[in-house]
UniProtKB/TrEMBL annotation:
Main location as per UniProt: membrane
SUPFAM superfamilies assigned: MetI-like (SSF161098)
UniProt keyword list: Cell membrane, Coiled coil, Membrane, Transmembrane, Transmembrane helix, Transport
Membrane topology: Multi-pass membrane protein
Name of the protein in question: Phosphate transport system permease protein PstA
Subcellular location: Cell inner membrane; Cell membrane
Transmembrane segments: 46-67, 401-422, 442-464, 470-492, 513-538, 588-607
Coiled coil spans: 258-285
Family, similarity comment: Belongs to the binding-protein-dependent transport system permease family. CysTW subfamily.
Start and end residues of each ABC transmembrane type-1 domain: 397-604
Length: 615
């Protein structure tokens, strides 16, 4: 009887589910709701994992981009040049008064004696940094043992020469022909003739150039043709209006407008005819490109390296190349297959600021083993400079140090004192509640507002010096105070009341209980909040821009009142410079700043883990 009743009850509720007691999610509707809930939870979990994965992907991409762009800036290329530092050139009694620029140029001329005329020497001198003489002067002044020597001395290359050696100016492709070649001449115009059609790749590049130019010119002709038709139609309309116009003043205005449009039409037709002639010429070159052609600066450059020399290809046929020998050939001897090469520079010369002749001279120095890649000490020891190769972060780093020192000296004692008073001594009334609310609100105020406050009060009212770490530290201290106060109060609240009660119970005063017992136990949390606040201040830019710390400062600041800048502002300024070397230094400086920030946050975590006590 009981079994029958149970079966009847089971049927009444939709049947019993195996493993689940009667009445618990046993109906079809309940099972559907349960399945829907599990599906929602699974989707929510998938969305969370996807969001984390997407954020991690963007973070990795950002770090990869910064590190990839910044790593080359940590090294620099120097050229070893034989410099005459004898007593005739450098007075041992006054080494700083020598003409080091002339000494460096004489050494370069000795390294590349074939760069004899004025134009070639100008190209040669441009390979070395414009500040190389200053660096050499410092080396000789600091190390008098260099005097009297005529051996090689490392001199920094220019920023573009350094980028080229690092492979950041243009991509290069070198091929070794499979046939022998003969050479006519060693200097000036030289012709290289191959036994087989080895220069088809150059002709293919020339054909691609002609195709691109024909397409662009055809588009311009089509657009100018539309302008021709538009102006012609406009003239026709004006002439029709003029024919029916009876007012002489309006007729005169229409006549003047028609004459102006006809003059414009004549210019359009003349330009159109000129472009059509250019198109016909280009089409003729394109049709006969298989027989040969002339290269120009708007297409990839090609070097022929043979017999120790370098020839820039200017005219080409399938089996021969004629061009200027940037590096003279050692001889006119015939060369066997595989003993000469064709180098392609993918970026056209007109699209880069490093000429083909500069590339040839740099390759010559690299082939001689005169160029060495060394740790870029200038980047870590120099201040700001308009020359990319002479610019460094030391001035900004020292400025950041003085600024953070002022910030810490002001914000830590004031912030901790305010937190102790509000948490331990202040009465709980409307005034203290108002103060607490405003402190919390100040933590959310945009940082540039503090910069405006510093500009209005510290500079305009008190007349403190602009661009000084003293003012920057005061502004950042105002910005950091809410963070330190909130963190310090949280650390004080975390100390159990029993500590206070025990201290008071043995006869300590309220002040002694706080400073002798509560504060030491809360100090790890207070220091953690302080370090995080300082890390936030170290990465700020906007408030410091408002007080003038964006100024170009060359000298290293020796005190908090000297003009200075900071690392974030230095990064901001470098990012605005167009030179590619400054873009590298920007990424490198970001890496240095991130290193400081990560170190400070890691120190805060270690401090918390090491001294934190769980009550």
């Amino acid at each position: 009887m009981t079994d029958i009743a149970q079966d009847t009850a089971g049927s009444a509720i939709g049947g019993r589910v195996k493993g689940i007691s009667p009445g618990v999610h046993t109906t079809d509707e309940a099972r559907k709701r349960l399945k829907k809930r599990y599906s929602m939870e699974a989707r929510f979990k998938a969305y969370g994992i996807g969001a984390i994965a997407l954020a991690a992907t963007f973070l990795v991409l950002l770090l990869f981009t910064i590190v990839g762009s910044g790593l080359p800036a940590f090294t620099y290329n120097y050229v070893n040049v034989p410099l005459d530092l004898s007593a005739e050139k450098v007075d041992p009694a006054n080494p700083a008064g020598a003409s080091y620029n002339k000494i460096i140029r004489d050494g370069l001329k000795a390294e590349l004696p074939f760069a004899s005329d004025r134009k070639n020497r100008r190209v040669l001198y441009s390979l070395v940094s414009s500040g190389a003489n200053v660096i050499l002067q410092k080396q000789v002044t600091n190390d008098p043992s260099l005097l009297g020597d005529k051996g090689p001395v490392a001199v920094p290359l220019s920023d573009f020469a350094d980028l080229y050696v690092k492979g950041l100016i243009t991509e290069q492709t070198k091929t070794l022909p499979s046939s022998a070649a003969t050479v006519s001449g060693t200097e000036g115009l030289v012709t290289v003739t191959a036994e087989q059609p080895e220069f088809t790749k150059i002709l293919a590049s020339l054909k691609t150039y002609y195709e691109r130019e024909i397409e662009l010119l055809a588009g311009k002709i089509e657009a100018r043709g539309r302008s021709d038709a538009s102006v012609t139609s406009k003239i026709t309309g004006l002439e029709t209006r003029l024919a029916g116009e009876k007012d002489p003043l309006v007729a005169q205005r229409l006549t003047t407008e028609i004459e102006g449009n006809k003059a414009a039409l004549d210019k359009i037709k003349a330009a159109l005819e000129k472009q059509k002639a250019e198109l016909a010429t280009l089409q003729g070159h394109f049709d006969n490109v298989g027989k040969g052609g002339t290269l120009n600066a708007n297409m990839p450059s090609f070097f022929i390296e043979v017999n120790g020399g370098t020839i820039k290809a200017e005219k080409v046929t399938p089996t021969s190349v004629t061009g200027t020998a940037f590096i003279p050939l050692a001889s006119q001897a015939a060369v066997a297959a595989g003993q000469w090469g064709i180098k392609e520079l993918e970026t056209p010369e007109s699209f880069r600021k490093f000429s083909d002749k500069e590339i040839a001279y740099t390759d010559y120095l690299v082939a001689k083993g005169s160029v060495e890649n060394e740790w870029n000490s200038i980047f870590f020891s120099a201040g700001a400079s308009r020359e990319a190769e002479m610019a460094g972060i030391w001035g900004a780093a020292v400025g950041s140090f003085w600024t953070m020192l002022v910030t810490l000296s002001l914000s830590f004692p004031i912030g901790v004192s305010a937190a102790i008073y509000l948490e331990e001594f202040a009465p709980k009334n409307r005034w203290t509640q108002l103060i607490e609310v405003n402190i919390n609100n100040l933590a959310a105020v945009p940082s540039i507002v503090f910069g405006l406050l510093g500009l209005a009060v510290f500079l305009n009212v008190f007349g403190l010096p602009r661009s000084a770490p003293l003012v920057g530290g005061m502004v950042l201290a105002l910005m950091t105070l809410p963070t330190i106060i909130i963190a310090s109060r949280a650390a004080l609240q975390a100390v159990p009341p029993s500590i206070r009660e025990a201290a008071l119970g043995v006869g300590a005063s309220r002040l002694q209980a706080v400073f002798h017992h509560v504060l030491p136990l809360a100090m790890p949390g207070i220091l953690t909040g302080t370090i995080i606040g300082m890390a936030q201040a170290l990465g700020e830019t906007a408030p410091l821009l408002m007080i003038g710390m964006v100024a170009f400062i060359v000298d290293i600041p020796a005190s908090p009142v000297d003009p200075s800048t900071v690392l974030p502002v230095q990064i901001f300024m470098w990012a605005d410079f167009p030179e590619p070397a400054f873009q590298q230094k920007t990424s490198a400086a970001i890496m240095v700043l991130l290193g400081f920030l990560i170190s400070m946050n890691a120190f805060a975590i270690i401090l918390r883990k090491r001294f934190e006590r769980r009550w």
